[in-house]
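Incident review: delayed structure delivery

Summary: a single-chain prediction request sat in the queue longer than the usual turnaround. Root cause was a stuck worker, restarted by the on-call engineer. No data loss occurred. The affected request and its eventual output are reproduced below so the record is complete for anyone auditing the incident later.

Affected input:
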Amino acid sequence: MKVSNSLRELIAARRTGFNLDAPFYTADEVYDLDMEAIFGRHWIYVGVEPDIAEPGDYFTVKLGRASIVVLRDDDMAIRAFHNVCRHRGAQLCNELSGSVGNLVCPYHHWTYDLTGQLIHNQHMGENFECGKHGLKTVHVGNLAGLIFICLADEPPTDFEQMRETMEPYIGPHRIADCKVVAQDDYVEAGNWKLTLENNRECYHCVGNHPELTQSLYEFGFGYQPSSSNAEAVQEFRDLIEREHARWEAAGLKSAEIERLDSCVTGFRTLRLPLDRDGESQTMDAKVACQKLLGDLTDRRLGGLSFWIQPNSWHHFMSDHIVTFSVQPIDAGHTLVRTKWLVHKDAMEGRDYDLKRLTEVWLATNRQDGALVEMSQRGVASPAFEPGPYSPYTEALVEKFTNWYVERLRAAIA
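Output delivered after worker restart:
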């Protein structure tokens, strides 16, 4: 991996407890390193099982210059391939999603089955060996219905540890028995790390997210204790203890697990109660879908949040799931893809109203996008210098930047 001395010095000089220096957010050289060292070597969340519910269903994802096709084969296994024909390199699938019997190159019609094997071509001579020209595979990880890919030859091995830890948390929500009823692809005018930093704190939530804070407790994501809020903070802690005991007794894992910067595949999870005797992340904090997920019967299961480095976060409620993936476009633009899932048998108009289901996070995404864009303009200013993180409300941002810088150091060592 070729890295300039100036970039090595920038990485070495990172100051703990402060946000990153401007080139981390603005320089093309850093973006190129991010795509190779972070998105090219780690497990990247790309979709959910219901995206490819049937054999032949596929979706494509772009990571830097790499295009990947993720599909369900005839045996219902999930596979991923580089979206490149082995003949002269034409892109095989040119839509975001679809369904096929085989993968047929639109250029010269080389045909691959759903396991990636070349099964048909013409004019290549009698001695041509199809078996040597199958599609190039990409590693796939499935965590209770969340689909991850890894472009590295040898992916991080701790994915299995994360999967074993998280399946009991996510399993009762039964992603495979859901359907995706809405998807929002929104491009933020900012670097992907600003998108992640913004997500990893709620310091900004009050005053910026009026829809989201209808159901989120003010103290749920960090708060500096003081004499004026001590009683309210203690009440919230007592509520968490009571609700965790109730949920755990019902077989729902709820306790915090925090490994954001202590693992190669960093992650964190926690189930928190919702405000206003809340049931779901909606404007009135009531369920958005009357048909609950899996075999769940209690609407008041709070919100189970799951954060994974480097590119995703997810919210699981009794009635629906919201998943988010981050895909860098260039140094100053980032795609945020949001999906809403409900039970596969839920019917629009009877069980759920799509506007009510999506309105909180559609609004929140646009508000976050505006904040990220403002941050991008700020870090590009010659007056910018890294400022200190709050130890109370931005501790998870520090863990993200710690993880990020340590992964760069490991890659260039």
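Verification: The first strand starts at residue 44 and ends at 48.
Action items: add queue-age alerting; document worker restart procedure.
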